[in-house]
Design brief:
Layout: H1 4-24, H2 28-59
Helix pairs in contact: 1-2
Length: about 70
């Protein structure tokens, strides 16, 4: 199964790597860019979670018993 949402997440993380290093060195502008990127990464991660849950529901796994239908946060 191809998951473009996951590929997007990986690309966002890779794109932020250089600014993370600069921010760790004290570059305030890079820190601002990293915070913005982290918001995008958070959103992309949520998209991946939703896609995974959709896959479970399509297979009927979320409706089963045993408490497996709830995802911990």
């Amino acid at each position: 199964m191809s998951m473009p949402e996951y590929e997007t997440l990986k690309q966002l993380v890779e794109a932020a790597a250089e600014d993370v290093a600069k921010a760790a060195g004290g570059n305030k502008a890079a820190g601002t860019r990293v915070r913005k990127a982290m918001q995008q990464i958070k959103s992309a991660a949520q998209d991946v979670r939703k896609k995974i849950l959709e896959g479970r529901e399509d297979e009927g796994g979320a409706a089963g018993g045993g408490g497996e239908g709830k995802d911990e946060e």
